């Protein structure tokens, strides 16, 4: 069982790293080069619209992993064995991956639903981990 929570953590970190790809493409399109490496954020106003969304998406991915990682660690320690915790652990990285596409491609309804669903799966992991810790069934 615990391997599921470890994989959720690993895949969620991979998703954060994947979010660098559209950001990099936006920077390249805006003329990012070695000369302006000392201040990459100064290039923000030059980014195309998808590049700005990719920047915001990348920031949100870091925020998401900072909330999801402790939930995975809690579950790795407490070892909940409910089907809902296993499903939440597996589905979270997929939702966050799809979120990147919805954000960068400017599909607000999908982005909002994917964001909320991702937060929900993380909350499920916290709930299940705390229930296991408190011996609540």
Q: CATH homologous superfamily name? A: Membrane associated eicosanoid/glutathione metabolism-like domain
CATH class: Mainly Alpha
Question: Which architecture would the CATH scheme give at its second level?
Answer: Up-down Bundle
How does the overall form come out from the CA principal axes?
elongated
Summarize the structure.
The chain has 137 residues and is mainly alpha-helical. The chain has helices at 2-18, 20-29, 49-78, 83-104, 108-133. Helix 1 (2-18) packs antiparallel against helix 3.
Molecular structure report:
The protein has 137 residues and is an all-alpha fold. It has a single domain, classed as Four Helix Bundle (Hemerythrin (Met), subunit A), CATH 1.20.120.550. It has five helices and no strands. The longest helix is centred in the middle third of the chain and has 30 residues. The mean pLDDT is 92.
Quick tags:
137 residues, elongated, Four Helix Bundle (Hemerythrin (Met), subunit A), mainly alpha, 77% helix, single chain
Secondary structure layout plus pairing:
Elements (H helix, E strand, L loop, with lengths): L1 H17 L1 H10 L19 H30 L4 H22 L3 H26 L4
Helix pairs in contact: 1-3, 1-4, 2-3, 3-4, 3-5, 4-5
């Amino acid at each position: 069982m615990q391997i599921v929570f470890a994989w959720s953590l690993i895949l969620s970190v991979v998703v954060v790293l994947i979010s660098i790809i559209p950001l990099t493409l936006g920077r390249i399109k805006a003329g990012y080069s070695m000369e302006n490496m000392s201040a990459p954020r100064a290039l923000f106003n030059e980014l195309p619209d998808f590049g700005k969304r990719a920047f915001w998406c990348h920031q949100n991915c870091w925020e998401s992993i900072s909330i999801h990682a402790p939930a995975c660690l809690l579950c790795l320690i407490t070892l909940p064995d409910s089907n809902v915790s296993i499903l939440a652990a597996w589905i979270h990285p997929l939702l966050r991956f799809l979120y990147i596409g919805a954000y960068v491609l400017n599909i607000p309804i999908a982005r909002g639903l994917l964001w909320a669903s991702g937060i929900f799966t993380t909350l499920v992991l916290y709930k299940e981990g705390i229930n296991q810790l408190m011996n609540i069934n």
